Amino acid sequence: MRVDKFLNIVNITKRRAISEDMCKSGVVSINNQVAKASKDVKIGDEISIKFIEHTDVYKVLDIPNTKSIPKNMQEKYVVKIK
């Protein structure tokens, strides 16, 4: 699954367009490599998102099969490490 779509489905970003813009800006990394929006996410990958004052790191636990998931199901697919 594409990283921009994954970030949107697991409720890390509110819209896929925001995820795409973040990837274009170079603030999204997968396993310490800057990721384009089309980069595939796999189980076990670490996704880092750099903000001005901090960096959030998430570990991918599973890939969702649906177009959206409820916020309370987020921990089934991704866990925040930092």
Share of residues in helices: 25-40%
* Overall pLDDT confidence: 94
Question: What does the main sheet amount to?
Answer: 5 strands, antiparallel
Arrangement of strands in the largest sheet? 2-1-3-4-5
Number of strands: 5
- What is the overall shape? globular
Strand content: 15-25%
- What order do the helices and strands follow? HHEEEEHE
Quick structural gist:
The protein is of the alpha+beta class. Helix content is 26%, strand content 23%.
Characterise this structure.
- This protein has helices at residues 3-9, 16-25, 74-77; strands at residues 28-30, 33-34, 46-50, 55-60, 78-80.
- With 82 residues, the chain is α+β, with helices and mostly antiparallel strands.
- The model has no long low-confidence stretch (mean pLDDT 94).
- It comes from Campylobacter volucris.
- Residues 1-62 form the RNA-binding S4 domain.
List the helices and strands and how they pair.
Elements: H1 3-9, H2 16-25, E1 28-30, E2 33-34, E3 46-50, E4 55-60, H3 74-77, E5 78-80
Helix pairs in contact: 1-2
Key features of this structure:
single chain, 26% helix, 82 residues, alpha+beta
